[in-house]
Structure prediction request, 143 residues.
Amino acid sequence: MWQIRKCTGADFEQVSSLLDQLWPNKAQNRSKLRGAYDRALASTTQRYLCAIDQGDLVGFCSVSFKNSLWQEGPLANIDELVVAETARGQGIGSALLDAVIDVARKIGCTRIELDSAFHRTEAHEFYEHKGFEKRAFLFTMEL
Prediction:
């Protein structure tokens, strides 16, 4: 049976492999990714949680917190949520999502948000089933 816990530095390689599943068309720069991962672990405004099943990391979720004038306080944003293809359908994604929602509530967030690519229709159904609603478009520009 799997368990949810905070990620550690030792989890990086398995997290990185899961991110390959989340972004199959993205060539990762492992050195830059490792730097970003380590900065997040040391940050007070980010949390990384993982699901472990018999020693294997099978799920990962990252959440960031920022002060929001719109929310008049802290706002949570789920940056990544991925479950290993071989472990999907077991409730791991729901457990990770519930865990980050609990963390967000504990620090005083009144809203949690995320973005999801247009083609991820199964993910959209999952988030809507969990109570999320479509509220806005995401605009982005590469720098």
Remarks:
- The chain has a mean pLDDT of 94.
- The domain at 3-129 is CATH 3.40.630.30 (Aminopeptidase).
- The chain has one domain: 3-129.
